[in-house]
Every structure is written in C-alpha cells, then in structure tokens.
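Lecture 7 notes: from sequence to structure.

We start with a single chain of 140 residues. Read the sequence below before looking at the structure.
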Amino acid sequence: MITVENAESYLKDKIGEDAENIEKVWQKFKTFCKETVEGEEDKEILFQCGVYDFTGEKRFHFDFVRQFTVYEEDEYSRMEQLHCEFLFKPTDELSKLEIEEWSMDYDDIDDFLNHIENLQEFQMPLNLKPIKLEIYQEEV
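Now the structure, written as tokens:
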C-alpha cells in the first residue's frame, strides 16, 4: 500500500529510467494520481508552470504535484506536496507561459487530466529538453 511517507520513493521507482522523457513521466504520474494513498480522502492534483527564481537562478518550472492532507488520530496534522518538476532554461516562449490548475475545480480526475493535456502551457514544453527532473516531497 502507498502511504504519504513512502509516496516519494514509490513515484521515483515508478518513473525509474524514464526520468528524461517528459511524456513518459507524465503518463506514470497520471497513473499515480489515480492510485490510492493510505489515509487520503480526496485526490488533490496540481499542474503549474512559470518562470521563477526559487533557487537564486531564473528557471522555467513545469510541475506536476500531488497534495496530501495528513491526519493523525482523525485530527488535521499538515499538508505535504509531492512534486514531479522539470526545470528548463527560460526562453522567450516559455516566459509567456504561467498557469496553476487544481483538480478540485473539475468533476473528476479524468476531466482534469484531459484538460491539462490540451493546454498550451502543457503542450509547448513537451518538445523541449529539460535541464533536469526533480522529484521531492515537502510539507506546506
């Protein structure tokens, strides 16, 4: 069973050697989005992209996120986000792209995922070579 505690290692193992192929990573992330994580009530998925200076250097962030709400003994404890984030050198084209879309705004997860795949913000970076893929989980 997948738990919040092992979700990051589970996703890394699932992606494995496909880490340089954005489309393959997306397909595996989509499958992961539909899997049950112990204790999770609602699946909260986020797609976001834009040019940010989080690391002291401007990069285009192309980020798939699964958010977990953690309860301890039926009481809210914290939220954690598992990021599957590609980083690119910002170009003029990429600098024009910025979006934040949550799955909670859609009837179901399939509607959300289909919507994301049709966005210009999703489509354009697919043909570019990222600098790297970072998979990490953090408390928010």
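The CA atoms of residues 6 and 37 lie 10 Å apart. Keep this in mind for problem set 3.
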